[in-house]
Predict the structure.
Amino acid sequence: MTKARQDRRSAAFRGIGIAVFCVMLLLNFLTPYLADDYTFAFSFRTGQRLTGLASVFDSQLAHYFQWSGRFIIKLLAQWFTTVPKALFNVCNAAVYTGLGLLVCALATEKDSRRDPLLLGLIYLSLWEFAPVFGQTNLWMCGSLNYLWATFFCVAALLPYARYSRAPFAAARWMPVTAFFLGLVGGWSSENTSAGLLAGVVLCMIFCAVQKQRLPLWMWTGFVGGVLGFALLILAPGNYMRHDTAPDTRSMATILATRLLTALDMLWTNGAVLIVLFAVLFCLACMQGGEPRQLFVPAMLFAAAMAANFAMVLSPVYYPRSTHGVLTLLTAACATCLPMLAARPYRMRLACLAAAGCCLAAVQLVQAGYDIASFAMMRRVREGIIRQEIAAGETDIRTYAIEPYTRWCGGYGLPDLRQNTDDWLSTDTARYYGINSITADSARTYPFPGKTNLAFETGEIAN
């Protein structure tokens, strides 16, 4: 490859990354506080408004023992409520962009050239196969729990995948870095962290079978991951929350129901990626891929399955919990592509990318309209609420707002309701410093070609 062509590829690679960052930055700025964001603005110990890192840390200690083991993620979720949201917007756009770059790094060797086609296909997959894109990539609390958690897990898995493909001499700082990457990744998300540990264990087993020395950083990363996962799963708050909602069915019925739910969620949201992986992996095998090259996509697919079926241990499987699963499936597919470097394959992939870009462009226009319209209506409602507060009102009745598409952060999330005792109404009122705030109707905005049931019926949940 000539230097001029390498420069063009590098420029295209950087251009894709910059374009994705800019789009995500704009969408983040158009996304207001939603749902749990109001709750996380207050201390779980004192109920007072958070004022800084010290109060956030104290709140999360209480939260860890009362509700959830996601200490690091929830710490970030609460801390971001104490600083201007613009900071989160920039950081979140950077993490989304970085996740695509990490998946691209998983798919390539350590010193390989930048491949804009591969990166573009990865971002198309992250955009297209997210069942609730706005919840997991734009909503502040949701992004931290899913996008950031997946980012941490993929970052921790990256050196294992690369070492399994081509062993390398690690720097002196690698054992410490691997430990902290493992700790943060293992302590991030119950199911995605389970996928991380499955991938790490498979990489270590593969290297041992290949009679390859397991360097110290592999062990420290593994210990960090197990420690983080233990701190996540064994948090006292998990069991206090479980005790408040006991399931009276038999264990066999519970597990069978959850297994079928996990299978349905996987097939509903990931069927295309699973079939695509099967095709790409078979083609890579027929191309005569080496065992080390073929192992990495197989490992990532197995990690995705572990992340999905770990949800059998959870009483609820929300669509947003598929974020890590679908990212690992995307990585498994992407890791097959460098093994299909022959010109006929590249031409077909380029055609696929072109078609995907056309589809994504139309969807982006629709998503942009939906997100901007939702943001405008929220801003108008915010102004009305502030005016009533300034006039001395402490019990406010307003309206709920319903978006249309899965790319909007508010899609599928609760908004204000009729019941003053509803948790969201209570926490929103506390955020504004008033007695109560409720909604007596649901409103939306015109969207040609789409129907919003809340707008058609005018119904609002209790």
User: Anything to note?
Assistant: The chain has a mean pLDDT of 91.
